[in-house]
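ok so for the tutorial part 2 we go from a plain amino acid sequence to predicted structure tokens. step 1 is just haveing the sequence, like this:
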Amino acid sequence: MATEIERKFLTADESWRNQAESSRMLCQGYLNDPGRASVRVRIDGEQANLNIKAAVKGAARAEYEYPIPLADARAMLAELCMHPPVEKRRHLLRHGAHLWEIDEFAGANAGLVVAEVELGAVDEPFEKPAWLGSEVTELRRYYNHALAITPYRDWPADER
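step 2 — the prediction. this is what the tokens look like for a chain of 160 residues:
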């Protein structure tokens, strides 16, 4: 079984931008409502994947990902998604021994920026960059599937 181990954080400021090595736009939609798993289709440039993740909160969860034809992904996004797609620009940067993904959301989730780091073990130590803010790994509302259902713009002001 494939397991994703990932920690999520808000960013404290925008100083990470100077360290970004690359960035690209992603568009992803969900083919089901939350339950035991989320089923997602994602377009990343000219590549597309179908992804299935266990619907559990926390740093570790089962994940399966399979490449699919780009035309199929476009059709799924247009015809099968339960909610509008989540759009974001993903910036990649290295800090210490780890590759960080900084997701800068667009559309209904504009204004939200989340930093993620994938780890080899739940307790793996990692160097925290100065631009790192509060950890949100355990908060479901920051998961992309939740953002498709309740976008950031619809959150109460005290939850932002």
